[in-house]
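Sharing a chain and its predicted structure for anyone who wants a worked example. Both blocks are below, sequence first, tokens second.
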Amino acid sequence: MMRYKYFLILLLIILFNGCREEQAQSPVQTETPKPPEVVRKPGCVNCHTDIVIDDQHAFACTDCHHGNNAVSDKPEAHLNLVARPASPEYMAITCGKCHPTQVQNCADSLHFTLKNAVNLTRAHFGAETTIQSLTQIPQSGEDTELALVDDMLRRRCLRCHVYSSGDDYAYITRGTGCSACHLQFSGGRLENHAFIKSPGDAQCISCHYANHVGSDYYGQYEHDFNWEYRTPYTTSEPFVRPYGVEVHDLVPDIHQQKGLVCIDCHSGDSLKNTTRKITCATCHGWKPGLPKPAEKNLTVIDDALVLTDRSGQAHVISPMLHPAHAKYGREVACLVCHGQWSFNDAPTYLLRNASDDFDAMERLTVQSSSWVETLLEHNLNSDEEEIDPVMADGITGRTRPGVWYLGYGQRRWEDMIIDRDTDGIIKVFRPILDLHLSAVDENESLLFDNLTGKGSGLLPYTPHTTGPAGLFYLNRFQHLLKKTTPEPATP
């Protein structure tokens, strides 16, 4: 019995000493000192420390952005701030202070107004009047055929313009107004405030993507939207698509393979409608003895025409020596023979749906529109409350009921469409206006079904897929050549 008492006493002593050691090792609880308050100096650059500005624009931030550069308080510093001073709304009073002629020329250019594309589409669906800019596209709100077309233009088609900062994809997000071409964006974010005098192809392709002239220059052809027709095979899981849709890698234009960028042919002056349009013959049609073309990057060296590209590399331009140029050149456009492939997406189906029936779009959640894609992914795959079927106006940014869904009957690049244009020239065509429009209201009532315009929707265009003509070039257009009446036999 005494043995158990001694054992119990020993155990209590050990436990007591252990508690004392543990208490001794426990840190003393002290109050955590507060970090010293950061006192910022007045001025924009003392907060925006990562801003890089080029030497030509090294003046006060407030000269363009307004606000107050003499204070450190954020609300006070940002009072009357202009976040996008190069946007169309402000560019005349900001950029125009130093570049008035350039700003005015750009504002009147087709790249800025898109009036050709707008008027072609509206006329195809029966419009009898023309407008001078995409900003003048009516917003009637009526249930008429032309009102449906106008709504399609404002909210679905005309998203690549300087009034918009692009789509929410890595290679598409850009600036507005002057900054759309003259500032560098990467991964959807502005890189710096170093303005680019001559835009690179990244700026051009941020608008000229999605099976439009420009993406073909790089051999890019969009996959279909259905997840089973995109490769490598993708499911409905999130997948990074820098241009919104995966692309096939086809043969790039020969000029791109040689290192030429867009502005080596399409100079700033030509884009602003201040010079004549450049054609293939501008360079390749030159012969010794003829005056040098007016383009600044062209020179004559030893009876050869030489183009110096943006990087400084010189390219000797090959002349048109093949006898086919002399025989057919006045009747057949260059790309009829030299185009390697073209865009043939047809027919194009567009549905404006104001109902909450999203299940039909399960396999078409990739839509080449981040707005539509986000809405579909959320409403089809999330347990949270559904997003209303609304879509923003591409010009004003205001939302209206109805979401525009896009789909294609087929997407093909082979077998270029060759036909004779109204001016008598044989050209490459594509089904640009082969549009089929439908509309459903919030009650799932059909308002319009398969609305089409006048004619086939085929329009001539110049594919930027130049390459060798090949041996069988004549097979492309021989059936379209004018028949000549044989001379009568001499008696």
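Comments welcome. DSSP finds 16 helices and 18 strands in the chain.
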